[in-house]
Design a protein that fits this description.
It is a single chain. Strands 1-2 form a two-stranded antiparallel sheet. A two-stranded antiparallel sheet has the order 3-4. By secondary structure, it is mainly α. α4 runs antiparallel to α5 and α8 crosses α10. It is about 55% helix and about 10% strand.
Length: about 210
């Protein structure tokens, strides 16, 4: 009975992650899902301690839109990284999908590692995973994000902003809130805070496109 229950959970995890990516990626995503260690409930947390986790994907979700397709992205997940040898066998696109998945991981160091591995020439479906990090509390992610939002990718962020105005406003609010709570002493003026600078760069370029 326990084995059946675990299989159902694994199916549920795969279903939820499938909803986080556009349909055109689902064949590649299937290959990625094959190597994720869903059967391991004892996971390593950010402090190096192993803990038993009953549900490897948090129930909270983000509903976003890419090219009129609704994506439902888990807010947090807890499963460990896959076997490195299995990961090496993935194609470049499949590795990018894998990196996006781990940008939602509970371990901030793991999010930073995977963000560094992301391509400098992002595709549109990667944008919501990166934007979500802008509105979180780990400052060390912001310089990496700042480099990812370059002349080749900036328009993709503008398109995402315009397609998800409510979510974008929420992200702006979170950026300001985390600055106020955690970083105001280091950056007394909001305009000096990198998270705010990134938001303003995207908004300013967007405004210029509409002049």
């Amino acid at each position: 009975m326990l084995n059946i229950f675990r299989r159902n959970l694994k199916y549920e995890y795969k279903e939820r992650l499938t909803k986080a990516f556009p349909k055109k990626l689902h064949s590649d995503l299937k290959e990625v899902l094959k190597i994720l260690p869903f059967e391991q409930n004892k996971v390593k947390l950010f402090d190096g301690i192993f803990s038993q986790v009953d549900n490897l994907i948090h129930e909270t979700e983000l509903n976003l839109t890419i090219d009129n397709e609704t994506l439902t992205i888990p807010y947090r997940l807890y499963f460990d990284e896959p076997n490195p040898e299995l990961e090496k066998a993935l194609t470049e696109k499949q590795k990018e999908i894998l990196n996006c998945i781990y940008l939602r991981h509970n371990n901030g160091y793991l999010r930073e590692k995977r963000l560094n591995l992301m391509s400098e020439n992002a595709e549109k479906w990667t944008i919501p995973f990166i934007v979500q990090l802008m509105g979180e509390y780990i400052y060390e992610l912001l310089p990496i994000i700042d480099k990812k939002i370059n002349e080749n990718t900036l328009n993709l962020y503008i398109e995402f902003k315009n397609e998800n105005p409510k979510y974008w406003k929420q992200t702006e609010s979170r950026v300001i809130s985390y600055w106020n709570v955690y970083y105001r002493n280091k950056f007394p003026k909001l305009k000096e805070y990198l998270g705010f600078k990134i938001i303003e760069r995207i908004k300013k370029t967007n405004a210029q496109h509409h002049v």
